[in-house]
Amino acid sequence: MEKDRKIDKVVNLAKRRGFIFPSSEIYGGLNSIYDYGPLGVELKNNLKKAWWDFMLARPDIVGLDSAILAHPQIWEASGHLEGFSDPLVDCKKCKSRFRADHLLAVQKKGIKPDFGKSKPKDKKKISCPSCGGELTEVRQFNLMFKTFMGPVEDSAGQIYLRPETAQGIYVNFLNSKEAMRLKIPFGIAQIGKAFRNEITTENFIFRMREFEQMEMQYFVDGQNNKQIFENFKKLRYDWYLSLGIDKENLRFRDHAKDELAHYASQATDIEYKFDFAGDGGFKELEGIHDRGDWDLSRHQKFSGQKMSLTDDQGREFVPQIIETSGGVDRAALAFLLDAYTEIEGGRSTTTESKKEKEVVLRLDKRLAPIKIAILPLSKKENLTAKARQIYQLLSAAYRLQYDETGSIGKRYRRQDEIGTPYCLTVDFDSLEDNQVTIRDRDSMAQERVSSNELKAYFQEKFSL
Ligand code: ATP
Asked: 107 C-alpha to center of ligand 1: Å?
């Protein structure tokens, strides 16, 4: 295994500082399921809010929160019952389990498993990457989690945990259109949990069995798909850049014709350079797909409900769909990896911290879980009382952390490591002049600001 991988450092930081914990850890964990800790939930909420605001700021996009459980016929219509499967192979010798398409990519290109999407047609030529053993025949493995509705566990009561949020949008297309008096083109945005019984699960929160998606389905009349598709590609790419992702680490990858999903006529992935991946490191972060009229036509056929509309010229048509489909967790991982910076030898000037490696999480201010740390210079009552007063003043508008333990240098470093943009120190002079020191995470510049002006000061700092 490669040494000093950023992902390993981020996993360590995430656990130690309360971003992400392995689920059910005291029982040995549950494979590929993770819990977001006190700072992780803030990061994730900030990320979802940034996406939601980006989408809902548009006059042509409305929101939705559909249920995780849905009528099982939805999955028949969507093609998931029949086709949402991965090719599975087992090693006859060591019993390891792999996705055949991933293995094929490994052995053809000499890269790690869990990359690539080639079809497993050359399966005979591949062997177990762990022990070289012979592999079983390929079995198709459906990725949907099953459960039962009602007291009887029989096939009549069988339902599924949704593997994507999109279908909840399609089946509410007419309801939303009518209730909101929408005219095509318009979009419906949704953030919610999705579940996939993935065969290979690795790389922390990159591939999970329970995860969250942020999806927007844009309904069009099919006259201008290419242009709308290109617009959304650019908008979504720019969104990641606007929240601080380094341009070098982001790229588009257009799907080749033979790689397109059954419903798509054109598709592009926005890929991020995850340092754990082979082939240059780029892997999917979000997909932009032109789904044509496949989804609504299928729901029209399976439900018997009319999904078509009539345009101004009297032409009847089934609306087509351009979707942007991203993962909240995958995006959180990309933002964490991109923000993680190590400074060898440290950047502080105090002797105690000299030569120590320092970690700064350069998260965009909007994403940072804690916005301001309130630090009284000492635990003396008059200083802590003033610091608490300031905490009260700012706590309604910002997520804060109050910390009075350890040297001020150590406290700054604790905040740098979790990405807090500003540290506010109350010192003995503050008692005289009513001013506090504010330190900027990235430049480490410090300035004195009057306590009376703090609200206005931070309002400006956190304005877009
Ligand atoms: P992959 O090829 O990596 O399996 P996919 O093409 O199946 O992904 P989509 O079905 O297009 O993914 O889902 C849209 C987005 O949802 C992905 O871009 C990704 O960000 C996220 N996503 C999909 N599967 C998972 C998962 N198992 N864990 C975390 N996020 C996921």
From this structure: 23
The CATH code of the domain at 2-69+164-336 is 3.30.930.10
Convert the pLDDT of each residue in 438-454 to its tens digit: 999 999 999 999 999 99
CA of 287 to the centre of ligand 1 (A): 8
- pLDDT of the residue at 277: 74
Span from the CA of 168 to the centroid of ligand 1 (angstroms): 17
Is 86's pLDDT higher than 80?
Answer: no
Are the beta carbons of 374 and 402 closer than 8 angstroms? yes
Pocket of ligand 1 (CB under 6 A): 164, 196, 198, 207-208, 211, 213, 284-287, 325-327, 329-330
Rounded Cα–Cα distance for residues 268 and 232 (Å): 11
- Determine the distance separating the centroid of ligand 1 and the alpha carbon of 327, expressed in angstroms: 6
Question: What is the per-residue pLDDT for 375?
Answer: 98
Q: Locate the domains of the chain by residue range.
A: 2-69+164-336, 367-461
**Mutation pick for ligand 1 pocket among 47, 99, 213 (CB with most ligand atoms within 8 Å):** 213
Q: What does each C-alpha distance from 98 to 89, 116, 182, 201 come to in angstroms?
A: 5, 13, 46, 10
- Separation CA 240–CA 439 (nearest Å): 27
SS3 content of the chain, % helix, strand, coil (to 5): 35, 25, 35
Confidence class for position 355, pLDDT limits 50, 70, 90 = low
- For residues 362 and 244, the answer to whether their CB atoms sit within 8 Å is yes
Q: Ligand 1: distance of its center to the CA of 337 in Å?
A: 18
The CA 330 to ligand 1 mean position distance, Å, reads 8
Residue identifier of the C-alpha nearest atom 4 of ligand 1: 207
Fold that domain 367-461 belongs to in CATH: Rossmann fold (3.40.50)
Backbone angles phi, psi at 457, to 5 degrees: -60, -50
Query: Which residue in 249, 248, 275, 161 sits closest to 212, CA to CA?
Result: 161
Please, which pLDDT band fits residue 116 given cuts at 50, 70 and 90? Answer: very low
Residue among 211, 237, 269, 285 whose CB has most ligand 1 atoms within 8 A, to mutate: 211
